[in-house]
Amino acid sequence: MNRFIFVFLLLWINFTAFAQETLYVGTYSVRGSEGIYVYSFDRDNNSFELVQTASTPESPSFLAISSNNSYLYSTNRGGTKDYPDWGSVSSFSIDEKTSKLSPLNEVSSYGVSPCHVAVDDEQNWLYISHYGGGSLSVFPIENDGHVGNLADSVQHTGSSVNPNRQEAPHVHSIQAVPQTDYFLTADLGLDEVKVYRMDDSEAVEEFAITTEPGSGPRHFTKSADNRFLYVAEELTSTVSVHTLDLEQNRVNQTQRVSTLPDSFADNNTVADIHLSPDGKFLYVSNRGHNSLVIFEVNEKDGTLTPKGHQSTKGETPRNFAIDPQGEFVLVANQNTDNIVFFERNQQTGQLTPTGTELSVPSPVCLILQSN
Question: What pTM does this model have?
Fold first, then answer.
């Protein structure tokens, strides 16, 4: 009996070690894009196989997956039949065996140019940010994964110092804070990261984190314990570091550092930002320099030390994804229609091209899922 249990455990460990992995790619509807691309991933061979393309209204540019890995949501620039001038959000169920997507429903996002979507960890709420109109929308998620009727919509107002990019609010990204009722939004047009709390079905603004005038906060990430907030500032190619206490409505900026080498003087805007799974390194994508900058994180105070740059082997690196196991990084180069696979040294944070690339029209969002 003991031997039988031992063999069973070995088989179970081997099975779980090679769980099915899937890459979902959101795109802009240009150069022949067919919508959302679904690839199976073979970790042993660093190879990908296209298993499906799923159609949506125009430009399913950002994706989110529910915490139970059963549903996927996309923000689309294209609208619904009833609301063609606004964007939309699509919901899909994910097949447990094949990872293929099956459409559930599609609703208006109730705003112009939705560009980011997030799901809270309890799968109660779907959050949508609108760059074009400067607003956010909150939808309930039904038990079967469908998007419910609009719960709340908040319109930001104001402007900042850059007349070309900050003439009005531009709510760029939105994220839920796990195990809380809070969510955060980065408003590029206002130079603010706003902190909201869900009170029943209403989004209530608690306070705002102000970044440097003209910086244009785009995306952000938090440490696992929510003590440190890292903000990618698009217009100045910088990252600001903040200590954060959500319960006490307190924030303090502790550092601001460039994402570019001193020798680079051409145009650049930053895009995406992620911490490594162990929290020891931070990466930010540079569009113009066409690189990922690598920072080492001081685990005590959250501050950053530059450790170099890695070419993304393409132009305009929009979104990128770090393997949850920390072994590799995938980068979506929007203007050269390629996704590049890099090995990642977990001790140094450095990246090495593997030679593996995917050809996808205008890739702008990457999600790697393990079943």
Answer: 0.94
